[in-house]
Write a structure and sequence with these properties.
single chain; about 160 residues; mainly alpha
Length: about 160
């Protein structure tokens, strides 16, 4: 059993490899809590997986949106109670946003040189690069949470407009 290690394309300081065993995860899962970019990991390491950026992209994004709603509610509740949100929930929420962002552009998430990758996307919110970096730096704060929530809402509107 091999320990989980993100593929080079998914290496980013904000997303550390989780302390899990990869063989224990369901390869058919669209989203695995604690392991953002699960399908990209399968694609980059095994050339396999569901590849939702190619097939049924809209359906995959809607399914991720449901997970995102639960995570945002959890983060909001913690912030309202003047508590720090669960770091894994924050990381999952950021990961889901990036997945929806890239998948809606029919591409797998690629975190290597992320800011340059974001510039090449066609369907994206205004000033995405600056706003997303703000979320990365302050996702555990109310302002970071609000910015992430707004980015998610804007991306959903842009996806609907593109259909």
């Amino acid at each position: 059993m091999a320990e989980f290690k993100y593929a080079p394309e998914l290496t980013h300081a904000r997303f550390r490899s989780p302390d899990i065993v990869m063989n224990e995860l369901d390869e058919a899962s669209l989203f695995v809590s604690g392991v953002p970019f699960w399908q990209e990991q399968m694609f980059y390491t095994k050339g396999a997986g569901i590849m939702p950026w190619h097939e049924e992209t809209d359906r995959a994004c809607r399914r991720l949106k449901k997970h995102m709603k639960v995570l945002l509610e959890e983060i909001e509740t913690a912030l309202e109670n003047k508590e720090k949100p669960n770091p894994s929930s924050v990381t999952d929420a950021l990961g889901i946003f990036l997945s929806i962002l890239f998948w809606s552009n029919h591409r797998p998430v690629q975190l290597t040189d992320l800011e340059e990758q974001l510039k090449t996307l066609e369907i994206k919110p205004l000033n995405l690069e600056e706003r997303l970096m703000y979320c990365f730096d302050r996702a555990h704060t109310f302002l970071g949470y609000t910015q992430l929530k707004e980015l998610m809402l804007e991306q959903r509107k842009l996806i609907a407009k593109a259909e």
